[in-house]
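[INFO] parsing input record for V-type proton ATPase subunit C
[DEBUG] input buffer:
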Amino acid sequence: QDKGTKMTEFWLISAPGEKTCQQTWEKLHAATTKHNNLSTNSKFNIPDLKVGTLDVLVGLSDELAKLDAFVESVVKKVAQYMADVLEDSKDKVQENLLANGGLLEQQRQAEHKFCSSSLDAVPFLFIFKGVNQIDNDLKARASAYNNLKGNLQNLERKNAGSLLTRSLADIVKKEDFVLDSEYLVTLLVIVPKLNYNDWVKQYETLAEMVVPRSSNVLFEDQDSYLCNVTLFRKAVDDFKHKAREYKFMVRDFQYNEEEMKADKEEMNRLSTDKKKQFGPLVRWLKVNFSEAFIAWIHVKALRVFVESVLRYGLPVNFQAMLLQPNKKTMKKLREVLYDLYKHLDSSAAAIIDATMDIPGLNLSQQEYYPYVYYKIDCNLLEFK
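[DEBUG] output buffer:
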């Protein structure tokens, strides 16, 4: 399918059976594909469920709306976190998540998994508990992985950036310093590149008792050189003071091999831990995305069933259909559906025809059409 014209949203609709439900399906399919290619359609099979009283159905309708919103939020959280975890390969997220053959395959699995003969026995609590567990597990796993990632990023940040602040563990070596001397000490100085010639000429005379020819360039970044210089301990304060006047900054730094080794080991450990956790986490996200998505489609199917019985009455006789609209012709598709089904509900037709707001009738929150309609938005990621 051409990604440019297909929408990532699906419309799940239902209409009453004509003489047979097959006729309802054929009529819709012909109206939307025969001459105009408005959408890609498929039947959406919902198992026959035993229906309780009207009161029960109205109550179920409200409960299902809440459950739908909750399950959708978890589906999107899992998808968004998958995008966060995959970092540089965000384009692979959608394909990773819908790896189980897309929406129709998930719907078939939903049918199989949650099949129930009675609406009263529909496992609402079962669906809620399952998805709630995914939500809680996601929070715990995300928190652990984010901590690890955050600690690693902090260490990586220390190893980058300005010579004034960055870690020098991977830059300096033991031989760059005079160590264990009672009288002598080696300082590290950041010298702006523009002032380097001044440094070479003047560092030996910035204070008394600087060791001649003791300065070398140890490292450079875009703007500065990192130089060492050795002098007598008692001249350090004078040297620092004078150096500042010439824009030479002395770094507060003690050479400590153990500490630097520990930093490196910590970074390696965090990096290894992150790699170890990455694979299982992505697998967990894929599996649980699929579970949550199947639960979501199941809730949509139940909503269509309940709403269809409430609208079209008993005995149960309706056909549910899944439409994937083409991007450029969505308005036209709405018009075709409206013409097909406006006879079902004259009050809805009047509302759709009216351009003014009718006092006391607030339909702005909820799209209302003469046929049962639920949107399934598969654009699960904010960055898309």
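[INFO] The first strand starts at residue 9 and ends at 16.
[INFO] shutting down worker
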